[in-house]
Design goal:
19 helices, alpha+beta, 3-stranded antiparallel β-sheet, Argonaute complex, subunit Arb1, 4 domains, 5-stranded antiparallel β-sheet, disordered C terminus, extended
Length: 517
């Protein structure tokens, strides 16, 4: 065994060297140099303490076995630590209760007894529906987007929604409450007493909310975004049926669920139709006759679209009049806008006839065949009333308002998105030859559209009674007469010194009464 090199330290190189001699009865070499730093070790006679010098290794040198063991434990603990992620994204991906395959399980005996107590038909409807709202909102896992839609639907239906509607207690106060009391304290839903006399109709609210307000407020652009609203409302209505909350409105709730199912299909079709409207034929008419798509350029393809559409798809009378106008260069081929309407409602649809398809294939390859849409005039009740003369107003009030029937030509790839009862907000124009066409579509209402004014009452608050203003005192009345210079001003009393009595105006300035100077 080779002797130890006296020039090396115990735990690495030191800024001093070791002496060649060793110290008796000690476990380490005699240190020369900075003996002051190891004074404590010199006073310690135990060999174990002697071999634990307070000298740390340099970063570039390997650590001792103890240090390696400690570092390995720290690394293992970090690996075993589970990453929870940000609080805003915890719980995502877990079942929410709104999946297609989800259904509520059978009730236990205690749950059934609780439901019979809470939803006893003899209790007022407002108390029962409020209990159902609190429990549905508490026990359904809703993402922020879904909760926003659900709360907006409730607000549209007259339910008050807001932060800490139940009281807003602190965490310390919540610990002293029972589970039932804490659930009520956390709720954000409630019903104002002033709305207890309103009409209750689940189907009307669903038709009004999904028919117009949902699309205008949330602007869905995908099928999943539409289903987010319809499935949430459908799930809530199913919850009311499952727990038998209001059996007197069972038929109304069933109709509201059918409205939700219909909305999932129609709203997506309406979005597709709106994005592709008005079609090649109507767009060509709009361009040629000064509509929304009018342009100063001259494109012969627009005339070809118009000619092919009228020749192959329009009625024979329209074709003859249009042909005569072109042959004679008739200047009477003008556009007549239809006034005092907001759009049209589809009555029936005719697909392109077989001979139309053959003619397009032979003579107009590359163009889409057109079908026929029969419609009637539509006035949107949600818009402002039309300014009419007294005689016209009387006629309109007694059912004598003018009505129109239209026949439009529309491409077959757009006819698949149309259905009878669909209401389209657009400008309708008529050519002097009898052909109707429509301009850019502004909005599309589904077949179940119901005009309600609930959106105007979303943030409505009943005005409070204002206290009666204070009546001016007799002195204030005299002061007003003096300042206004009224001829009825009485003679002013003089003071004992012979001067005129000074009026204390500060008293009137500090009062709450307003004066007109």
């Amino acid at each position: 065994m080779e002797p130890a090199d006296p020039t090396k330290t115990i735990s690495g190189d030191l800024p001093f060297r070791l002496a060649g001699t060793t110290k008796q009865n000690s476990g380490y070499s005699n240190l020369k140099g900075d003996d002051k730093a190891f004074k404590e070790q010199d006073n310690n006679d135990t060999p174990e303490a002697a071999f634990q010098p307070k000298i740390s290794a340099k970063p570039s040198e390997p650590a001792s076995q103890a240090e390696e063991h400690t570092m390995q434990q720290i690394v293992d603990n970090l690996k075993r630590r589970k990453y929870k992620g940000p609080k805003t994204k915890r719980g995502r991906g877990r079942p929410t209760g709104f999946e297609k395959w989800n259904c509520d399980g059978p009730l236990t005996v205690d749950e059934f007894r609780e439901d019979r107590y809470l939803y006893e038909p003899s209790r007022p409807f407002m108390l029962r529906i409020e209990e159902a709202l609190i429990r549905f909102d508490r026990f359904r896992r809703m993402e922020p987007e879904r909760r926003n839609i659900f709360h907006k639907y409730l607000s549209y239906g007259g339910i008050a929604t807001g932060h800490n509607y139940g009281g807003g207690l602190s965490n310390q106060d919540m610990k002293t409450l029972t589970e039932e009391e804490a659930m009520r304290a956390r709720t954000q839903l409630g019903i104002h007493k002033e709305r207890e006399g309103m009409e209750i109709n689940f189907n009307k609210v669903a038709r009004g909310f999904l028919g117009s307000f949902f699309g205008q407020f949330f602007s869905p652009s995908k099928q999943s975004e539409i289903d987010l609203g319809t499935v949430t409302i459908h799930n809530f209505l199913t919850y009311l049926l499952f727990h038998d909350v209001c059996p007197e409105y069972k038929e109304d709730i069933l109709q509201a669920r059918e409205t939700c199912n219909l909305a999932s299909k129609e709203l997506w079709k309406n979005l597709k139709l709106l994005s592709r409207s008005p079609g090649a034929f109507n767009k060509a008419c709009s361009f040629l006759f000064g509509g929304y798509h009018f342009d100063i350029r001259n494109d012969s393809s627009d005339w070809s679209l118009l000619k092919y559409g009228i020749t192959f798809g329009a009625a024979y009378e329209v074709y003859e009049r249009f042909k005569g106008a072109l042959e004679e260069d008739d200047p009477n081929l003008t556009v007549i806008p239809i006034r005092d309407i907001d759009g049209f409602e589809i009555v029936s649809i005719e697909e392109a006839a077989p001979h139309v398809l053959v003619n397009y294939e032979k003579h107009a390859a590359g163009h889409t065949p057109v079908g026929i849409v029969h419609a009637k005039s539509f006035r949107d009740p949600s818009k402002a009333e039309i300014d009419l003369s007294p005689q016209e107003q009387w006629d309109w009030d007694h059912g004598k308002a003018p009505s129109y029937s239209f026949t439009f030509l529309l491409e077959t790839d757009l006819l698949q998105f149309c259905s009878p009862g669909l209401k389209i907000i657009t400008k309708v124009m008529e050519l002097s030859c009898g052909l109707h066409f429509f301009d850019q579509m502004i909005a599309i209402y589904p077949t179940f559209y119901e005009c309600l004014h609930n959106d105007m009452m979303l943030h409505w608050k009943t005005p409070k009674k204002i206290a009666q203003p204070l009546q001016p005192s007799r002195e204030a009345s005299v002061f007003n007469e003096i300042v206004s210079g009224s001829p009825e001003t009485p003679s002013q009393p003089k003071s004992e010194q012979g001067g005129q009595k000074k009026v204390d105006t500060k008293h009137y300035e500090d009062s709450d009464t307003d004066f007109d100077y």
